[in-house]
Amino acid sequence: MEKRIYLDYAATTPLAEEVNRAVYAFGQKDTGNPSSPHRFGQQAKILLEDARDVVAAGLNCKPGEIIFTSGGTESNNAAITGTLNAVDSIGKHIILSALEHPSVLETAAYLERIGFEISLIQPDANGLITPVQVGKSIRPDTVLASIMYVNNETGIVHDSAGIAEICHKNNIIVHCDAVQAFGKIPLDTAKLNADLLSVSAHKVYGPKGIGALIIKKGTPFSGIHFGGGQEANRRPGTENLAGVIGFAEAVKLLEQSKKDMAYAGNLQRLFESAIKQEIPSAVIIGEQMKRTSFISAIAFPGIHNENMLLNLDLAGIAVSVGSACSSGSIKQSHVLKAMALPDEIINSTIRFSYGRYTKPKELDETVNTIKQIIKRLA
Whose C-alpha in 8, 144, 213, 257 is 20 to 30 A from the C-alpha of 363? Predict the structure, then answer.
C-alpha cells in the first residue's frame, strides 16, 4: 500500500467518523426547508435550532448570537463589512495586523478602495501583536479592530482578550478570527470578549462549507447579502442543514479537546525534538513563543520550500507552505515577511500540522524522509 501521511491539519482536518454518520443519518430523513411553515419545514427548523444550541454551548455564547455561514472566509468578510456598513457614519478607520488571513487582508484592500483607512500593525520581533501596539494605533475615528487569535502559519497565540479590553475602553468594535484557535486552545467567547468571532467546522473534524460568525448581542451589524430573512435577517439563504448538523456533531466531540490538546502537545514535542536532533540547521519559527500545539513552522535553510514540499508529496507526506496563488505556484509567506525574517528562512519554511489521528511513528517517518531529501538536494 502506498504510504500516505497527512500533516496538513491546519488546512483542513479529516472528517470525524461520528460526523460522517450524523450527516448520513440526516440524509435519510424527510425534511423540508427550515423556513417553511408545514410539518416538514418545522421538523427541519427544530434540527437547525438544536444544532445551534450545541454550537453555542461549545463556544459559551447565546444561540441567538450565532450566524451559520459557509466557513471562515465568509465569516471574516461578513464580520468586517457588516460592521462597517452599520457604523461608517461614525468613523472610517480600521486596525488590522499584517499577519491576518487573506480573507481579512483582501477585504481591507477593498475597503481602502471605497474610502476607509487601514492601520496595518507589524508584529514585534517574535511575531506577536500586542495590546500595546493596538492601543498606539487607535485614533478618534477608529471603529473596528480585527486581530486573529492564533496565526494559521506559525501557530503563535495572541492576547486577544487584552486587545479586546483596550479597544473597548476606546469604544472600538472588536472582531477576532478564531478559525485556527477553535478546538486547538481553550476558546471561551465570554472570556475572550470579542464583539464578533469567526470559526469554521472543517478545522475541528467537521464538514467543509460550514462555519459560524458569533455576533455579540448589541453589536452594530448590517448584513452584506440580500434575500430572505434567515439567520435573524443577517445572512439570507436556505441554511445548509446537513452542514450545520455535521458542525454540531463535531462540536460535541470537542468535549475531548483537552485530550486532543495534550496529545498534540506530545506530538509537537516529539517532532520538534527529533528535527533539532537530526537536522541541527533547522529553525523552528516562534519556538520560544506561546503557540498552539497543532502547528510547527520549520525552516530548512538551503532547501527551497517548494522543493521540500514536492519531494515530501512524492514520498506520500502532505504538508504546506505559507501561501499559494490560484495557479498553484508558491509565493513568499506574507506572515513570515511581516516578521522581518530573512529570505533564506522565509523561502525554506514548511508548515507541519497534526491532530487527533496523527501517529507518532508517522512523525518519525517524516523526520527520516526530510533527512533523505536534504541529503539529496543539498
Answer: 257
